Amino acid sequence: MPSFPVHLLIAQMLSEKLGISNKPSFLLGSIAPDSVNLKGFADQKTRYSAHIRSVDYNVWKNQLAEFYKDNADAFCDDIDFLKGYVFHCITDIAWDEAVQPGLFIFLQKDQALSREQITKLKWEELFRFNSMLVKEELFTIGTELVKLACARDIASVTAGQIIQYRDYVVNDYKDKITPELPQFLKMEHVNVCAARTLELYSELIKA
Known about the structure:
The chain is 63% helix and 0% strand. It is mostly helical. It has one domain (4-204). Helix 1 packs across helix 8 and helix 5 (79-98) crosses helix 10 (187-204).
């Protein structure tokens, strides 16, 4: 799964193609599921609940489509927030399908690494990548727009958690960047993930 700068950039890149009318709400939704990780990675049950997730990716995709359909009426007054929330989860899947395999091959470098070791290296590379992404104009604009959005309870995440996470994203994300440059990831990977996200979103979400 990608870090929040990737989520915010891809949401910015695709919002027009998806016909989003309330961009601040969409962008806030696009980072909201990770609110459960504000104080460090939450336990698996909490993360999976927030992301409407299953270990089986096909099941996960179906659950997201059903979640959107089941909640569309409840969010009829703020449908773009719901779309953003589901969009985040679809972007997670797209990253895992289109980018992460290549990243893992690069990080392994013919070494026999444990799952924990490869996960640690993955996040170190993502934090290096963040140091580039937060300088992008689309990221800066996105952080300004999310300030205008209103948070709501959704899935297993509370509005209060989302507000706290939004404030962290906007004002204090320095623990998620490093002066080091990424060794593998580049903007091309964001574009690849965005393309796959658009494909999946178009398949799963019937607006």
